[in-house]
Amino acid sequence: MGMAIVGVLVIVLMVAVTGLSKKLGVAAPLLLVVVGLTLSYAPGVPDIEVPHEWILTGVLPPLLYAAAIKVPVIDFRRNLGAITSLSVVLVLVSALITGLVLYALLPDLNLAAAIALGAVVSPPDAVAATSIGKRLGLPPRLVTVLEGEGLVNDATALVLLRSALAVAAGTMSGVWSGVADFGYAVVVAVAVGLLVGVVTVAVRARIDDPVLDTALSFVVPFLAFIPAEELGASGVLAVVVAGLCTGHRGAAVLGAQARIGDDVNWRTVQFLLESAVFLLMGLELHDLVDDIDQDLLSIPHTALIGLLVTAVLIVIRVAWVFPLVFLLRRRAGRAERRIMRLWLRLEQVRERPADPRQQRRSRLLRRLYAQRRADLEQERREGLGWRGAVVLGWSGMRGVVTLAAAQSLPSTVPYREQLVLIAFTVAVTTLLLQGGTLPALIRVLGIRGVDTTADLWDSAALFDEIADAGLRVLDAPDTVLGAGVDPDVVERVRQDTFLRGESLWEQARAGEGEDAPTPHHQYRQLRLAVVRAERKAMLTARRHGRYPSRILADAQRVLDLEETRLRPRTTEH
After folding, report:
1. CA-CA-CA-CA dihedral for 338, 322, 306, 32, to nearest 10
2. Any residues with CB less than 8 A from the CB of 320 and at least 6 apart, and which?
3. Residues 300-336: pLDDT tens digits?
4. Whole-structure pTM over 0.85, yes or no?
């Protein structure tokens, strides 16, 4: 009963702190860490220590999966160069440099163990940065890069940590063995993640029961993580690949109810796990400080080393990001020349005699040309400039993986308690320093995020395009329902489709400054008022007991769906 009460209080605390953070304009992870630190020194609060295996095996897979299913694969592909540079190469470079710094400062620490701690503190956690960015309206491309980096860099760091610890323990010989281990871990993880993603989506597509579908979706991250780890690969990367595959294929294969359920369920899981981990960071720090052997290395000295490592990591990231953004802008110019060459090849194919082989090649080139042209147009609209580089360089907050990976260091490693405190110092300092100042930095730079008006016009144009395909079905309704379709039914469906498009165009025009309420806005408000009155009458009927409970429950579901459809859409950017 005691643990149940603690669990309830923790969830209530997380909800209250997150709600308060929105009113204060402070990122929730920062406030949760501060609250955890404060509670850890409060009288009567017991020492809290969660085994690192629980975090790495029980928390990290669903947390990464919840983030991965929301990242559009097309955006991930378009930013693959930047994501790879930040999440793989920068992590390796940061781990090596910080490892050398620690090796120079701690005389009893061997180089492999020092690089292991470098791997622990190298991967940034994108949670705080993306929560701030979405709230303040960062450009979507910046948010995508940060999310993609946060998904992949954990796998890089954990594989590097495993290899470095193996070298330190003498079970792996040489750098090339570590490189081979890294390559094996990546290739096998990608294969496992793709297999799990494809198979689970195919199975879920055949499940009509939403309860069973939800239950299966909750085990998907573990179906990817556990086999990959057993095969000696990166379970974390397998989970990310499975999540990306599920999010991408689910749009075409899963039903609408399954997709809506996934969105709500995994957002809830992500909120609970993220909040719990950041609260835990603060709560564990007090106990961690008490475990330090001050005769080996004092707490102030350890904290100073942690601050030095923090400064080194910040300098490395900033120095890395600016050249990266410059190269990305140069690449856009080269992409335009490649597209021109592709167009010339397409013209040459069109001029040749038409045979099945040439037709297939022409279709392939047309698709490739359209894709690359769209990529280039997106790059021009959302290209990263120096302001984006500043934000990207300052978004290096550490979090979940640093917390868990630091505690996984073996007890045989010299200075283990001090190394864990150094990692915690880096995580807490970056969260409070960079996370606390990032909103002000974004405002000072004046970065423009999503253009809401342009999005409304794009949305209206998209629905016009897909409505044309939908309306063509009505040209031959007999193929759908058989002979004898009532023309009035066909016309009603056609008018419903037209009304949706008209509503979107009205919203777009209203976004440009037309203040008068649009007819569709008035319709939604009146229809909502009708639904509320109907709900009130339904509740009255329930009180009087005139109808069976199952009939009342069905009526409530119908009204809930209608109200959900009528309310304005909310989107995350």
Report:
1. -80
2. 85, 86, 90, 93, 393
3. 899 999 999 999 999 999 999 999 988 887 776 677 7
4. no
